[in-house]
Specification:
With 94 residues, the protein is of the alpha+beta class. The protein contains 3 helices and 6 strands; from the N terminus they run βββααβαββ. The radius of gyration is 13 Å and the shape is elongated. The chain starts with a strand and ends with a strand. 31% of the residues lie in helices and 37% in strands.
Length: 94
């Protein structure tokens, strides 16, 4: 299963909105937001993960105007497209 998220910076937080699923999360940094996505997906799809279904998370962002702190955050993680695997009910592993 592939779970997609639109990722954007709102001027204060990194936000992730599920595409086709009712999940929304955010974080002060891009890394925090990615961890929050993993946790939210792990909880939302707990039953599927317990049955050993492979769940992949795809985060997508478009071009936006970002502050210098947000730009430095991007150097630590690629925000244009990222895929992680969910392996267990405790969350996803990258």
């Amino acid at each position: 299963m592939l779970v997609k998220f639109e990722v954007y910076y709102d001027g204060e937080h990194w936000c992730a909105r599920g595409i086709g699923i009712d999940i929304f999360t955010q974080g002060k940094s891009l890394a925090d937001m990615m961890e929050n996505i993993k946790e939210a997906v792990g909880l939302h799809f707990e039953d599927q993960l317990q049955s050993s279904e492979d769940i992949r998370v795809l985060s997508i962002s478009g071009p936006t105007s970002r502050s210098s702190s947000a730009q430095s955050d991007e150097r630590d993680a690629d925000s244009s497209m990222r895929t992680d695997n969910c392996k267990d009910t405790l969350g996803c592993t990258g």
